[in-house]
Amino acid sequence: MAGVDDLAKALESTPGGGVILTSIDAIADWARGYSLWMMPMGTACCAMELIAASFSKFDFDRHGSIPRPDPRHTDVMVVAGTITHKMAPAVKRLWAQMPDPKWCIAMGNCAVSGGIFYYDTYSVVRGVDEFLPVDIYIAGCPPRPESLQDAILRLREKVRAESISPSRVRAVEGVLPLPGDPLRGETDDAAPEGSDA
Amino acid sequence: MDITELREHLCGQYPDLCPLFSIEFGDGVLLVTSDRLHAAARDLKDLGFDRLGMVTAVDYGEEFELVYRLQSREMRAGIFVKTRVPRDEPTIDSVNDLWAAANWQEREVYDMFGIVFDGHPDLRRILLTDDWVGYPLRKDYENPTIIRRPDYL
Q1: For residue A97, what is the domain's CATH number?
Q2: A1 falls within a domain
Q3: A192 near B CB under 8 A
Q4: Residues of B with Cβ-Cβ distance to A86 under 8 angstroms
Q5: How far is Cα A53 from Cα A133, in angstroms, rounded to an integer?
Q6: Percentage of residues in chain B with pLDDT exceeding 90?
Q7: For tag attachment on chain B, is the N or C end more exposed, with fewer CB atoms within 10 Å?
Q8: Which helix (H) or strand (E) is A41 found in, with range?
Q9: Among partner residues B143, B149, B153, which is closest to A122 by beta-carbon distance?
């Protein structure tokens, strides 16, 4: 992505370059936001809801979200289900095979935090965000397809607020900026909301 | 052979265990010592129990109880065969040569309880990673990554 960064920097410093930059952003974000192809990482019962989301009653094709069997075709990994310590390397590998830009949705309590397997369990990863950069968390055990639909729509808002220039990325309500994201203040990690520090 | 005949046959074969054996409701329980397990399994297979439904184990502290679930399509009957092995030397003969279904089932019991099956062709972990330490379904299993549920939950 070094070439893109250089391009963004050059455009920002050129008079009138911002017009070109925002035009590129508008086209790229429009194209990306309406074709969020899913990598269905279904490992447990949440996968049933994920499958239901693809079929005619909910029909995610109309959002441009098509489940693809190959990570190299996909933009967003939907981790739907419990991830065990044995499964985690495979998930990581599939994530690495997805081309940039890519996003991640943690669907269901197991993928968010380990869910009912949080306590007294030797084999379950406590939340897929221990090794993946999660953009959207969906609570539920399992969540209904409408929740996944909401996540896809929110993710689209986030994608459409992105820019090839890091300084122009806009914040989106309800979507957590990732660690290292310029939108995320450095104090966020040190002092969580509500603490005195 | 119907179920009544089966019961009489097994009671003749295992007289000391006859009071423990009831198959009226289709599910008998046959308790054998661990050295007789393979012979008993072979007997039952010859009697028509052609399907091994499952193999599992229970941790009773001093010893492990192995549970085999056999089924017969012909008699429409099921039977549990149970045996116990000591905890300090948990070894039992594999029944993989009688029912190929035992292969993965016994690997799972080995994986979770550490019970060694003599004569198993490929005894290694099946569900956990190969470098896993310990046997998780043992009552005394400890793993520092486990977070214990607090009392108030």
Answers
A1: 3.40.50.12280
A2: no
A3: no
A4: 127-129
A5: 23
A6: 33
A7: C
A8: strand A38-42
A9: B143
Q: What is the ipTM of this complex?
A: 0.73
Inter-axis angle of helices A46-54 and A145-160, nearest 10 = 70
Task: Please name the residue that has the structure tokens 């116990």.
Answer: B84
Domain range for A118: 38-175
Residue A187 within a domain: no
Domain span at residue B7? 3-118
For residue A186, is it within any domain?
A: no
pLDDT tens sequence across A1-51: 567 778 777 887 888 877 888 888 888 888 888 988 999 988 989 999 999
Range with the poorest average pLDDT among A137-141, B72-76, B86-90: B72-76
What band does B26 get if pLDDT is binned at 50, 70 and 90?
low
Could you tell me where the DSSP H helices lie in chain B? 3-13, 37-47, 102-113
pTM recorded for the entire structure: 0.77
Domain membership flag for residue B146: no
Distance separating alpha carbons of residues B72 and A148, to the nearest angstrom: 46
Q: How many separate domains does chain B show?
A: 1
Residue A102 lies in a domain: yes
- The CATH number linked to B63 is 3.30.460.80
> In the prediction, which pLDDT does A17 show?
77
The domain tally of chain A equals: 1
**Which chain B residues contact residue A118 at CB under 8 A?**
147
Q: With CB atoms and an 8 Å threshold, state whether A85 touches B129.
A: yes
Q: Provide, as residue numbers in chain B, all residues whose Cβ is less than 8 Å from the Cβ of A126.
A: 147
Which residues of chain A, if any, have pLDDT below 70?
1-2, 166-197
Tokens of residue B12, six digits: 């003749």
A-chain residue closest to B128, CA distance: A86
Answer whether B129 sits within 8 Å of A122, measured CB to CB.
Answer: no
